[in-house]
Design goal:
The protein has helices at about 5-25, 30-35, 35-50, 65-80, 85-125, 130-135, 140-150, 160-185, 200-205, 230-255, 260-280, 290-310, 310-345, 350-360, 365-375, 380-410, 415-435. The protein is an all-alpha fold. The chain is built from 17 helices and no strands.
């Protein structure tokens, strides 16, 4: 293998991403599904790559890119997160936190329970961590799938293909299911701002912004005579991801093989780097939007390469239990939408619940895409509420992604399944109680 192999992998995927964007902009059926270009590129890469037709000669390294890119994404999180106090979260967004946290824990716990109690009895021989594929794909998306697969490592290499398959299906579920819900709710008069689904702006369908809607993607913080601002931000993230990998490898060596995922280390290293930059005043050269764009680019590549690296043979081997797991998860989320989410929100019940459905099945960007359909001007404040609740939820997710695979490997699958499910039910009960006025935050 040479540097040209890596570059050609990127070149081929760059071409597929451009083709994906073109297809989204010009093909009406694709526009109707609001498919992101990264997903289209990944599917094309899988079909045209070595696993199927062999038209595109991707290298053997393609399956390793996701582990690298997820470290970049997590390394960027400290630079893009909004820090708020716990008191502010409790006062302002109790319902959003409870719904989101409860749903997240429920997917992890329910997936494990369903696998251990039902699927293992029907199919036999399933790994104890098979149930984690529900949350890793639906709620977590391709990034979480990569993180969970890295946690299992060589102990269960099939986790990567199954996780990326689950995440890809999750995007389709988010889009098709979310649009169906929106159509039903709008016909019933439940949407506050959407009168007719057919009146959606064209740019939402094509993915191409009109001239009046175009905005800067970041601000230049340094002179290009010194270094290009985009390169500066990308270099910082590359250094953080590289340091995280080296620390992770060192930790594994000194502990005799105990692994600590590089993406979790990247989050810690990123936070330390940000703290050091703020302490010294060097953070004045940072722009959060530019950092967001670099992270977003890494996410697009992660999704595309993750799908392209799926092993059809692995999916074929597990397709029946995986299909039942995902159907069970979808039923759980639809039940939650009707009986927990909508009753838990005090205002804009449909808007906030549609957003929750989108991100619980296909990640936060899918939730935002659905929210823009029912609330184009973002007047429901849904993202404001979620933004405030994001910090404690995200920190919890990072801990779960980092340690769940390891705990399952050492035999704690059953306690985790029961504990996570019970915790989720308790938070669900709190969410419903909170909206009914039985609990009030103290001023």
């Amino acid at each position: 293998m040479s540097a040209w192999d890596v570059f050609l992998d990127l070149a081929w995927m760059g071409l597929l991403l451009a083709v994906g964007a073109l297809i989204r902009a010009t093909v009406p059926p694709v526009q109707a599904l609001f498919l992101p270009a990264s997903l289209i590129a990944g599917v094309l890469g899988l079909i045209l790559g070595p696993a199927v037709f062999g038209v595109i000669p991707f290298s053997e390294l393609i399956s390793q890119y996701s582990g690298l890119l997820i470290a970049v994404v997590f390394g960027a999180l400290p630079f893009t997160m909004r820090i708020v106090s716990v008191k502010s979260v409790i006062r302002s967004v109790g319902s959003m936190w409870a719904v989101t946290q409860g749903s997240t824990l429920m997917q992890w716990g329910f997936g494990l329970l369903m696998s251990l109690m039902l699927l293992s009895l029907i199919f036999g021989g399933l790994p104890d961590g098979f149930g984690l594929m529900l949350a890793a794909g639906f709620m977590g998306g391709h990034g979480t799938a990569a993180a969970v697969a890295e946690g299992f490592g060589d102990r269960w290499p099939d986790a990567a293909s199954l996780g990326f398959t689950s995440a890809t299906i999750g995007i389709f579920v988010a889009i098709i299911g979310g649009i169906t819900i929106i159509k039903l709710e709008s016909r019933r008069g439940g949407t506050a701002y959407l009168q007719d689904f057919a009146d959606l702006p064209r740019e939402l369908r094509t993915g191409v912004l009109e001239q009046k809607s175009r905005a800067p993607i970041g601000r230049a913080t340094v002179s290009t005579m010194s270094i290009d601002p985009l390169m500066l931000h990308a270099s910082i993230l590359a250094a953080i991801a590289g340091a995280a990998y080296l620390i992770s490898e060192w930790f594994s060596e000194v502990t005799g093989g105990l692994s600590f995922p590089a993406f979790a280390v990247a989050f810690i290293v990123g936070g330390l780097v940000l703290l050091a930059m703020r302490t010294t005043g060097a953070d004045r050269v940072l722009d959060s939007e530019t950092m967001n764009r670099v992270s977003g680019s890494a996410t697009d590549l992660l999704v595309a390469f993750g799908i392209a690296a799926i092993s059809p043979a692995v999916v074929a081997r597990y397709w029946q239990p995986l299909a039942l797991l995902l159907v069970g998860g979808l039923i759980l989320l639809l039940f939650s939408y009707v009986f927990v989410w909508k009753p838990s929100f005090r205002d804009h019940k449909v808007e906030q619940s549609v957003f929750s459905f989108g991100w619980q099945t296909g990640t936060v960007p899918m939730g935002i895409a659905l929210l823009r359909i029912v609330d184009p001007q973002m007047r429901s404040k849904t993202l404001d509420y979620y933004g405030l609740a994001y910090i404690p939820i995200n920190l919890g997710d990072i801990v779960l992604m980092a340690f769940l695979p390891a705990l399952v490997i050492v035999g704690f699958a059953w306690p985790l399944a029961i504990g996570l499910t019970v915790a989720a039910l308790a938070i669900y009960a709190f969410a419903l109680r909170l909206n009914r006025g039985h609990w009030h935050a103290q001023p």
